[in-house]
Amino acid sequence: MSNLPSEPEFEQAYKELAYTLENSTLFEQHPEYRTALKVVSIPERVIQFRVTWEDDAGNLQVNRGYRVQFNSALGPYKGGLRLHPSVNLSILKFLGFEQIFKNALTGLMMGGGKGGADFDPKGKSDAEIRRFCVAFMRELSRHIGADTDVPAGDIGVGGREIGYMFGTYRRDRNRFEGVLTGKGTHWGGSLIRPEATGYGLVYYVTHMLEIAGAGSWEGKRVAISGSGNVAQYAALKCIELGATVVSLSDSKGALVAVDDGFVTVEDIEAIMDLKLKRKSLAEYTPKGNLKYIEGARPWVHVGHVDVALPCATQNEVSKEEAEVLVANGCRFIAEGSNMGCTLEAIEVFENERRTKKGDAIWYAPGKAANCGGVAVSGLEMAQNSQRLSWTKEEVDQKLKDIMKNAFYNGLETAKKYVPMEEGELPSLVAGSNIAGFVKVAQAMYEHGDWW
Ligand code: NDP
Q1: d(CA 248, CA 310)
Q2: Who is most buried in 50, 252, 423, 440, counting CB within 10 A?
Q3: What is the mean pLDDT of residues 430-448?
Q4: Is position 376 within any domain?
């Protein structure tokens, strides 16, 4: 690996997976899977391209566009598009790598991929966003298709951007097909897709609470970071189920409850409107007892919480923040964001799980806890293939079933492969990694991808 350029985010994601496989009995039982790990960690294909577009002043602008087609053993490449100035190959490889195993955990037939561009949607007019999306899809459209690669949204890509990209594909390729998910519901989008990642996260944690004997959501205090798609719907579902949400945040700061304050549905609706206009949380004036802290993440400012849901971006919970959460009595941490916790933060949670036994911490990695978004994308693909739309209730029920299966698959796989001391809780991170990996590795073997 030493002659390769440094890819810190990808190396972190690889290490997390490899560490949990190494510390289980998987390779003892199946030494041949070491070869599979070597093969699966290299993308099948990486596409990099130039995107030139014109800003409102008539100037040429240029960005780097990418699509990492990581693994197609279980189906067409599937994973979101991220538009953010930080986007580079390391970040997209980490996201694509995680996506392979996450998609396997949904039980649906989807491979793993990720893409995007280092374009910053903030401060751009609607016309600039449209011109960028058109230019981006002009190039990407050569490489994707309903049976080849089906991208979706991610940071900076919501329904509006998906619409512009879908229209470009339709016009340029002269095909109306399910080539993107997260579409408008009156032209092929699935009901519940916008809500799916946040709702799915909460459904997943419901099983964590249940198995730990911690009861329902009623009365639980929940810290959430982020205020985008995932955070918004996670917060709304928590509130619907009777929990109290005590924080939200964005890239500039955090909104935290003080003096028995809490985030209300009205707060979230106002923030949704603000975020659609790409404004900062700092511009929101809360009505109740909420305080805005500039430059902060919520974790050390929320006091006691029962549940923490990182829902903004990667590496947004550090070791020190993890220690404060634990010291303040938080027992359930589940990632809405991809790789929300640093490796050191995961170690804090996993150590607590190993040593505290009964009252220990339950930590769920993003690839299991946030798989609801891509799961409903998979359901959107199924509806598109049938040219039918399912009801909200049907999709929501399927989402609940998928999240339950993802939870128990991780739990049971951990029991099977991870040695545990008497009274120790199973590791959801190890179990989920092993379950996703084995499914993909086996399909690759049967296809002759490794031998
Ligand atoms: P959005 O763009 O809707 O929201 C992102 C949120 O995170 C915003 O509040 C944003 O703040 C904040 N944020 C972005 N970058 C940073 C940063 N560097 N530091 C602090 N805050 C930051 O994205 P989503 O809600 O869709 O995605 C959030 C996370 O969930 C990502 O990790 C994504 O990969 C993951 N995810 C998303 C899925 C989906 O279906 N959308 C599916 C599975 C995972 P600001 O508004 O200031 O930019």
Answers
A1: 10
A2: 440
A3: 98
A4: no
Helix pair angle (229-240, 193-211), 10° resolution = 50
Q: Between residues 3 and 155, which one has the greater pLDDT?
A: 155
Q: 207 and 242 in one domain?
A: yes
Tell whether ligand 1 has an atom less than 6 A from the beta carbon of residue 103. Answer: no
Q: Which residues pair with 247 in a beta bridge?
A: 223, 256
Q: Which of 229, 309, 403 to mutate to test the pocket of ligand 1 (most atoms within 8 A of CB)?
A: 229
Q: Which CA distances in Å does 423 have to 49, 364, 417, 419, 420? A: 53, 19, 16, 12, 8
**Do residues 180 and 202 both lie within one domain?**
no
Is the same domain home to 223 and 359? yes
The average confidence (pLDDT) of the chain is 96
- Is-catalytic flag, 114? yes
- Say yes or no: 158 and 207 in one domain: no
pTM tops 0.85, yes or no: yes
> What is the per-residue pLDDT across 251-265, written as a single tens digit (0 to 9) for each?
999 999 999 899 999
Please state, in angstroms and as integers, the Cα–Cα distance from residue 343 to each residue in 29, 59, 316, following that order: 26, 43, 11
